[in-house]
Amino acid sequence: MKQNTTHILVLITLFVSLTAFAKDSVFSEYEVKEFVFQGRDAKVVFPKKANANGYWIWRARFWGAEPQVDKALLEKGFHVVYLDVAHLFGNEQAIQLWNDFYAYCISEYNLNKKVVLEGLSRGGLIVYNWAAQNTDKVFTIYADAPVCDIKSWPGGLYSGEGSPKDWERCLAAHGLDSVSVKSFKGIPIHTGVKVAEAGIPVLHVYGAVDVVVPFEENTALLKEKFESAGGTIKLIRKEGVGHHPHSLEDPGPIVGFILDSVDYKE
Questions:
Q1: By CB neighbour count within 10 A (0-12 exposed, 13-18 middle, 19+ buried), where does 138 fall?
Q2: For residue range 154-206, what is the model confidence (pLDDT) as tens digits?
């Protein structure tokens, strides 16, 4: 019996080790720290040689997906960090979690007091909402097919496909219903105005035929308000591309925008 128990424990340990390796395989050539922060999964990827200015990029969602930009910045000495705030849809709880994680990161890892924010898809909600309340802490925003209006996704109230299950979660996360959501201002097309007024440059990459997070219902609306508020926004349009894949095969234009925004020097 004891031998069987030992055998089972060995198998479990091996399975956990293999699972951890699989999760980290995207950044296998770098040191990766995985831990739990206030009940949420957190990750930090360390560059082989850290930049003297402590630059870092904070990914909001979909860890490891299309990592071209993250890897390119790691080679420039950036740290890459992540805190999972899934299903909070950029609400006040998510913002507070990010406030606490920001304080932890700059203290624990001696990172720059300003960060580059990376928001893929629904990650656009938290990067804009957090940035709007922390404009002094943000170098720039790189948003990729970002959700800018929850009525578009997950709501599906216009031409987009929407997601009924996520819509229920989203309304609950913000304490809204089908009526109050129509006048809700806690979304990037509104909160982005503060980002624009603060002079934070932003870049949006989007697919021209995205039917999940349609350009016209999201980035186009944010761009109009952003520029009216005096902000600078650059767009990269991908012809014939839908919601996926994110990023660019050659991330050079995105990486160049980010490096210019932080005034990077070799």
A1: buried
A2: 999 999 999 999 999 999 999 999 999 999 999 999 999 999 999 999 999 99
81 beta partners:
44, 58
Question: pTM for the whole thing?
Answer: 0.91
42, 58 contact by CB (below 8 A): no
230: nearest Cα among 261, 189, 195, 196:
196
The Cα–Cα gap between 87 and 94 comes to 9
